[in-house]
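Suppose a colleague, Dr. K., hands you the sequence of a protein chain of 136 amino acids and asks what its three-dimensional shape might be. Before reaching for any lab equipment, you can write down a predicted structure in token form. Begin with the sequence itself:
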Amino acid sequence: MDSAEYKRAFSGDRELITDEDPPDKDRNAISYTCEYLRTSSHESAGTLVVFASPGERSEKTSLKTAATICSGAPKFLPGNAFYCDYQHDQYEYTYLAVAKFSHGEMRIAMVTGDLAPDPTRADQYTSVAKSLTERL
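The predicted structure, expressed as tokens, is then:
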């Protein structure tokens, strides 16, 4: 997901740059991480992590597992996606997850934004979820 798409949904008017980590190979899975950083300070504005879950076949089960870090009930979006409030270190973030069985494995994308979830942005969250699902 490019920084413009991320910014529309999660970061408002802030200028961002991306920093992609090399793939992380752990046992049977590979994960990919991209940090969205504020241009001026290089502080993190959020993260996108994509990984495969070997052996898992149920998108619903994968989403249920992904939702365990939500501070409240997830708000489901069209397709196999949701967003929710995620609190960490006294800060409130938006957390969005999508799951798709693709290429013979369960693939999950999770993205965080440094703003609290905003129901008026549900269309942007849906657009991000659709885009991520297509790329999985």
